[in-house]
């Protein structure tokens, strides 16, 4: 998940930062998440192949320039990394239970990735201190795993990326923890459907903006709100690269071509679209404490359509 480059610590459109007194939102009931204690970085064995940013901190990708058109061998590498990420995500979703801390989820993911002879891509990317992003309830994105334990009624997005044999594979899911209220269940179910609907738009020759239009239309139909500050992105031997994939209604240039790989990862919320970044410079939260949900797949554009690469066994 990429943060829109002109967003620093808050996002708002049309200059509206004061959301009270406008449309009334049914937020349901949830536990509000605050920052907890973060444990030290987990070690990566010497034999694991590491991306360059493990050694030297990288800078954000601009998303500009032509998207990479991958060769057959590169596509095979992407299939393998994405399959691994999807299988680890499937296992991790089953591990996320009441009483398990997000730091324990990080430990679980880290160990699974290392055992597969892969590298957990989030670790040290732009200085991120952990091996997975865990975003609970009012945390929209980029939550840092800490000592907070999952509680009955939580929803949690688990965002896993692995670097395997030279390629990154990226996917995420939002899962229910215990007895989630009706609004929370509706949000999670609708967001998964939103991603599925947007994937149906993908194919050679299609403008990239159809993805954002589909997501915006679906969210409006479900009476939910897109959080527009967060983008999908091109992916390959690089974690983030062109094209930027906008999740809101837009007419930006760009066309899907066979051999392109990118993520689609909309965030929908029960409240307003505004988000702000907390003092750890990573955790993005809703300004109205509303919950959000996110689902993500890595997509390959083929000669006759598209292929979802992040489907588990």
Automatic annotation (TrEMBL):
Keywords for the protein's UniProt record, in alphabetical order: Aminopeptidase, Hydrolase, Metal-binding, Protease
Cofactor requirement: Co(2+); Zn(2+); Mn(2+); Fe(2+)
Ligand binding (a divalent metal cation 1): 159, 170, 296
Catalytic reaction list: Release of N-terminal amino acids, preferentially methionine, from peptides and arylamides
Positions of the Peptidase M24 domain: 77-303
One Pfam family this sequence matches: Peptidase_M24
EC number(s) on file: 3.4.11.18
Cofactor binding: number and manner: Binds 2 divalent metal cations per subunit. Has a high-affinity and a low affinity metal-binding site. The true nature of the physiological cofactor is under debate. The enzyme is active with cobalt, zinc, manganese or divalent iron ions. Most likely, methionine aminopeptidases function as mononuclear Fe(2+)-metalloproteases under physiological conditions, and the catalytically relevant metal-binding site has been assigned to the histidine-containing high-affinity site.
Chain residues that bind substrate: 142, 240
Class of this enzyme: hydrolase
Family classification: Belongs to the peptidase M24A family. Methionine aminopeptidase type 1 subfamily.
Purpose: Cotranslationally removes the N-terminal methionine from nascent proteins. The N-terminal methionine is often cleaved when the second residue in the primary sequence is small and uncharged (Met-Ala-, Cys, Gly, Pro, Ser, Thr, or Val).
Record NCBIfam families: met_pdase_I
Protein name: Methionine aminopeptidase
Natural source organism: Aedes albopictus (Asian tiger mosquito)
């Amino acid at each position: 998940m990429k943060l829109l480059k002109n967003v620093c610590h808050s996002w708002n459109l049309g200059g509206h930062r004061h959301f009270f007194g406008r449309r009334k939102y049914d937020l349901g009931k949830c536990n509000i998440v605050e920052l907890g204690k973060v444990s030290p970085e987990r070690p990566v064995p010497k034999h694991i192949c590491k991306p360059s940013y493990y050694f030297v901190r990288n800078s954000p990708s601009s998303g500009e320039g032509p998207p990479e058109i991958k060769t057959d061998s590169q596509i095979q590498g992407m299939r393998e990394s994405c399959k691994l990420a999807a299988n680890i995500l499937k296992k991790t979703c089953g591990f996320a239970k009441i009483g398990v801390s997000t730091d324990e989820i990080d430990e679980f993911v880290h160990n699974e990735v290392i055992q597969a002879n892969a590298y957990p891509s989030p670790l040290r990317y732009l200085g991120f201190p952990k091996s997975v992003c865990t975003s609970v309830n009012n945390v929209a994105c980029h939550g840092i795993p800490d000592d907070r334990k999952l509680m009955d009624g939580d929803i949690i997005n688990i965002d896993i990326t692995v670097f395997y044999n030279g390629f990154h594979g990226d996917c995420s899911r939002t899962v229910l923890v215990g007895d989630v209220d009706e609004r929370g269940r509706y949000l999670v179910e609708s967001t998964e459907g939103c991603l599925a609907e947007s994937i149906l738009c993908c194919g050679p020759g299609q403008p990239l903006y159809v993805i954002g239009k589909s997501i915006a239309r679906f969210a409006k139909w479900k009476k939910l709100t897109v959080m527009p500050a967060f983008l999908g992105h091109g992916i390959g031997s690089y974690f983030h690269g062109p094209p930027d994939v906008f999740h809101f209604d837009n007419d930006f240039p760009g066309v899907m071509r066979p051999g392109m790989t990118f993520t689609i990862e909309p965030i929908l919320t029960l409240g307003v679209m505004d988000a702000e970044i907390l003092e750890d410079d990573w955790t993005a939260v809703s300004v109205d404490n509303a919950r959000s949900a996110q689902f993500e797949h890595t997509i390959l554009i083929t000669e006759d359509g598209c292929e979802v690469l992040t489907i588990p066994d």
